Sequence to fold (282 residues):
Amino acid sequence: MSAKSGIFLILLLLLGAAGFFLFAPQELPESGAVSGPAGKAGPAKELRSGERPETARRESARAARSAEEGREATRTLRSSVTVELSPDMKAFGEGAALDEATAAALEAGRLQGAELHAALGALGRSGGEGMAKAWEIVRDEHDPAAKLAVMRSAAAKGGPGLAAILKDGLAAAHPQIRYEAVELVEPLQGKDEATRREVLGAAASGDAAVAAGALGQLAQDPRKEDLALMFRFLDHPDAEVAASARGTIDFYVDAEFKTTAEAQVWWQGNQAQFDDELEPVE
Fold:
């Protein structure tokens, strides 16, 4: 064998070995762990029994996308609000009952400042009807801090009248009241879904910041009813809100819509293809 032939043979062997290591198929780790989506640092996810790697990757990417949608919408809402109202909530705790003279002064609009807050607190503690009455008194926002205090107290107590109060708050003149009307809904997830969804659905017709915050909450661990509410945001006049709704819906059901009506028609014929957690039914 000539020297040139020997060198040529060695080069062929080296190229073959390199090709094997570069292009041979890679094995999944024996532990069954699947890493998160590209560019997302985090712990490996253990495969459930019988789960395919593709399903685990999709769920991991889906969770990351949903969480980021919620965070971004919340940042949008918060960055648009200047917090300046700091009502003293002590008056809405334990205290004296509302006497007739104070009740008359409250009804006539003669109370202000600490006296107004104390009277509203006493009225709110008298029950659901009292809280509704307190809200009627502050609805005109002659004292925005008092209105915010009543709204916070109503949210802390809960009850059937809360949805109406928070929906009113979404349309308040003061931006901080609108902001908190959305924020106060978040703790209701898993506890009072009817009120939560009623308020978040109403936020679809609010200003861009309110709508963005509500959409962000709906995008966090959504169920079928949450998706149906997201459809309402497709018609929002703010282009960014509508685009965010479009992208979020597309992510969960792999379908893109231009209008609320178009999405609702599609959903009527296709919702049976998904379980309550928006996973495809096999």
Notes: The longest strand covers residues 33-34. The chain has a mean pLDDT of 79. The CA atoms of residues 95 and 122 lie 7 Å apart. The beta strands are 33-34, 45-46.
